[in-house]
Amino acid sequence: MLLRYRGGEGMLAWAFHRISGVAIWLFVVLHVVDIFLVGAAPDVYNGLLFIYATPPGIIMEWLLGAAVLYHALNGLRIVIMDFWPRMTRYQRQLWYLNWGLFVLIGVPVTIVIAGQFIRSLERL
Amino acid sequence: MAAYSRSGRVKPNSSGFELAIWYLMRLSGVALFVLVLSHYLILHVLFDPAEQTSSWIAEVRWSSTFWRAFDWLMLMLVLFHAFMGMRTVVGEMTHGGLRTLLLSGLYLMALVLAVIGTAVVMTLPNVVPAG
Q: Is the CB of residue A90 less than 8 Å from the CB of residue B6?
């Protein structure tokens, strides 16, 4: 699959978009089921929440945020190029702009989630 | 139509169903950009998820119709976007009977998730008994 493109940023952007997309799909399935349990079996939901709030759970939460942020930014880049073809000329610059925004947004979020991670360690 | 997108899917030549899906993926994607990022910002950054027990969801988060409507809209869009995305993945990686089987499974899953998600967001009481 990865060999379909001839390399470069476009291929990496595509590969990351697909990997993050499938990962988010998996989480959405889990998340709809867990929220359904809030009504159907509140104690089972609270048990799941306890697992989410463990240190490995917080790392997954952080990775989920990274996947969502990447997918959102790159998706916007795709939409911009699809509806404004002239921007395709700057697809590489848009890709670097994406990573700039990814870091700019990701750093403060990471600091907050690091706080949650420390609290999860204290709960052990 | 030229293949002018490097990382997106080429716009289908045909009119009709596939073209509609192509537009709807982009439309739902832009809406989800706002909905999902604000969802994550509110529930994972501004609030600590560790405190979001079932009674917190019932009594605080879903105490307003606005947030229930927000979450339901996001649910519908994310199910469409995620399952149509998986349809593309399955369509590219499989063929024949396996493809039919997996696609049927995906559509059934999407339907079940739409039903149970709609049920909980619309019917969860604001007070959970003995929460």
A: no
pLDDT more than 90, % of chain A: 81
Distances (CA, A) of A100 to A9, A90, A93, B64: 15, 15, 10, 36
Q: Does B48 touch chain A (CB under 8 A)?
A: yes
Q: Is residue B54 within 8 Å of A45, Cβ to Cβ? A: yes
Nearest-CA distance A75 → chain B (Å): 7
Fold classification of B17-123 (topology level): 3 helical TM bundles of succinate and fumarate reductases (1.20.1300)
- Residue A120: burial class (beta carbons within 10 Å; 0-12, 13-18, 19+): buried
Mutate to test the interface with B, among A18, A44, A82 (most CBs of B within 10 A): A82
Backbone angles phi, psi at B2, to 5 degrees: -75, 150
- The string of pLDDT tens digits covering residues A30-77 is 999 999 999 999 999 999 999 999 999 999 999 999 999 999 999 999
- ipTM field: 0.92
Q: Domains for chain A: give ranges and CATH numbers.
A: 2-123 (1.20.1300.10)
Name A43's Cβ contacts closer than 8 Å, sequence gap at least 6.
B54
